[in-house]
Known about the structure:
The protein is built from 13 helices and 16 strands. It has helices at 15-35, 97-100, 114-124, 147-155, 170-176, 214-217, 237-254, 259-286, 301-307, 326-339, 353-362, 377-382, 386-400, and strands spanning 50-52, 58-60, 75-76, 82-83, 107-111, 128-132, 158-161, 182-185, 193-194, 204-205, 211-212, 229-230, 291-294, 310-313, 343-346, 365-368. It has a four-stranded parallel β-sheet with strand order 6-5-7-8, sandwiched between helices. A two-stranded antiparallel sheet has the order 1-2. The chain has a two-stranded antiparallel ribbon with strand order 3-4. Strand 5, helix 3 and strand 6 (128-132) form a beta-alpha-beta unit. Helix 7 (237-254) runs antiparallel to helix 8.
Amino acid sequence: MDKFKIMKGWPTSHRMPRRLVLALVLVVMLAAVAVTGCGRAETNASGQSGSPSADGSPSADGATMSDGSQAAYGVTKSDGSPTAEVANGATMSEDSTAANNVSPDKLQVVCTLFPQYDFARYIAGDLADVTLLLSPGMEAHMYDPTPADMKKISRSDVFIYTGDAMEGWAAQIVESLDASVHVLDLSGYVTLREEDDHGENEVVYGHDGHAVEAEDAHDHEGHHHHGGFDPHYWLDMTNAAAMARAVGDTLSALDPANKDAYAARTAEYVAQLERLDNEFFEVVQSSVRQDVVFGGRFAYSYFMARYGLNYATVYHSCSAESDPSVSDMIRVIDYIDEHDSPCILYEELSNGTVAKTIADDANIETAVFTTGHNVSLDEFRQGVSFIDLMDQNLEILRKVLNE
């Protein structure tokens, strides 16, 4: 890395070469990682996405079953707090009820991603066993269901997923499910944004330092599409509230004897989401600046649109299969230089290679702004909630917008 370090303080006349060299270095670094076969720049040596450790490097967080497949996590305890089904690296029998820590007399709820898992976990309390398919620390876009996962889904009472745009594998599984499994596709409760809809919030600068249309500036070749729609709708807190209400209504319909308890806990959770919605607006509107810069995979369009933030981004999607172009990087470097941006953000469970390299050169800070797809194994064991993650984002935003 040191040999790629770009000299700071180059003369103004050398500005174009400096930023061009930096962008080219980043492209070479990303290409080198791809050639090694680990798939995504922000994965660890085992090829599995890991949660950032204290030094920012990833750690492996996935448990494996005796057949080598990823173990599902997330059965809740009687007090509503989460517990991993198996310890990291442990093995278990697929048919062992005790090992799976499930109760045959309770609703069995299986969720694909952390947001809906946390909604269901809280709303159900001790009235249901709620399982997260995605192993803590695993990058959501790298996940494919194992045979054990498919068996869990087929044996559940409720299967909750984000939608075909996020879990492209789900449609085939849903078609094969017995009628006894209730399927809750949460995308039916929100208005989806088209993936190429960058809206009016993205700020893109051309090589001459003047703003250009985002659609004209983007090089879409190689960009990954989630079926044409952006599936990360939970980052708009009004959408998250709609998701929570749908989960509560579903549990109430399947377990009417406990509908009052589900309704009360749904109301509690929605109240927290409404608080966050108001506080995000307040922070953006009352801050010194209303713009942010992203140097990681981008899954924040709903958040930017809802809360009125302008943004510049190196990546234009969260695809693990595409990397930014030289021109994308140069535009963001220009934006940082010309707007005195104090910080560049990147997503959770990644090394933040691009963001950190740009930050080092620009002498600015980096920070993780979570998408909420998933949590690390340590966070999972600590019982970190979706509300906790969004509160962390709120504090990051408060700091970045006032520097």
